[in-house]
Predict the 3D structure of the following.
Amino acid sequence: MAYWKWDSSYELGINTIDDQHKELVRYINELQAALTTRNREQIYKVLIGMTNYTISHFAFEEKLMEEAGYEMAEHHKKTHDLFVAIIQRYKSSFEEGYNITGQLMAEIQIWLTHHIAYDDNDYKECVKKMLEYKSSKQLKNKIVHEKKGWFSALFR
């Protein structure tokens, strides 16, 4: 049974980001499962995977915000950096032998829920517009290319 179920209210309407957020929830649930077995090796493995995935996700989000010209991108990046520092601190404590998993689980879920609902929600319209623009531009380029191909073929 899942510790945390994905809820559509968390969705931003940006498929790639929503899928990445779902993956973060999967990591949280995997960590919960590892917790129940009390297998430190498995807990550590999940913790490392979740940390790496989170850093990758944040980099992807930051790139989108930058491309979209989102005005609060630098502030948003700082919230990401702060969260990574928190996760790293938990990881270090775990490596020193402390049982941090219960507290970590609670903090991650609260942070992620708040971050999606407020911070990510703030950039979503700006990023959506940029993605729609890029998509329409690619479609127009494809149509122009196809027309050129057809027109050129007519006179060959």
Notes: Helices lie at 15-37, 40-68, 73-95, 101-154. The chain has a mean pLDDT of 85. The chain has one domain: 11-154.
